Amino acid sequence: MSEEIVLWKLKDQATGNEMDIKTPYVVREKQIPQRLRIPLYVQGVIISDDELAALGLERVGYTQDQVDEMHYSALYEVNPDLETRVRQYKGYLDELGLEYTATLDEITTAIEGSETLTDTEKTALALKIKTVYDAITTNLEYCGSETPLVDTCEYLAKLIQYLPEATEEETATDESEASETTEETETEE
């Protein structure tokens, strides 16, 4: 008896039926992955949470504080110099005893009304604050702001509120800058 195969057939594993090897096709149901655009809204209303889950999606809610924290953290991440400038600006407001929502007019009034500063020191402080304020505007423009002047005014209090914690190195740098500022002022007198 020869072990050589002389007839080939196709066997349907599901039914056990055999077919001629020359059978040109077979009918099968087959899932074909296809990229589809699946609408998430029907008549202006988002689909149900169950329908979203079937698509591998879920709704996630954020409070205004969480939205602000993400927004301002992203600004600091995009431009690390922004953190330095905002920290300087915050220091000047603290030095003047002003709220972080203080406007430039309120800052000017506080500087002019200061009884502890000489006229030269008042001018120097006003110039420093204006320089830092302008640097913040430039940093916001670098971050992609289309209206950096307006955004500086609107964002400053929140930028201070969401200012990242200072590292020991930054604290030492801030203290050395403050002492340099004091030395410069004393030298000018």
Order of strands in the sheet with most strands:
1-2
Order of helices and strands: EEEEHHHHHHH
- Relative strand content: 5-15%
Number of strands: 4
Termini separation comes to: 119 Å
| Mean pLDDT over all positions | 87
Instruction: Sum up the overall morphology in one term.
Output: rod-shaped
Helix content: 55-70%
Radius of gyration: 34 Å
Major sheet description: 2 strands, antiparallel
Give the helix/strand class. Answer: mainly alpha
The poorly predicted ranges are none
What is the element layout, followed by pairings?
Layout: E1 9-11, E2 18-20, E3 41-42, E4 45-46, H1 49-54, H2 64-78, H3 80-96, H4 104-112, H5 119-142, H6 148-161, H7 168-188
Antiparallel strand pairs: 1-2, 3-4
Helix pairs in contact: 2-3, 3-5, 4-5, 5-6
Walkthrough of the structure:
By secondary structure, the protein is mainly α. The chain has a domain at about 65-189. It contains seven helices and four strands; from the N terminus they run E-E-E-E-H-H-H-H-H-H-H. The strands form two sheets. It has a two-stranded antiparallel ribbon. A two-stranded antiparallel sheet has the order 3-4. Strand 3 and strand 4 (about 45) form a beta hairpin.
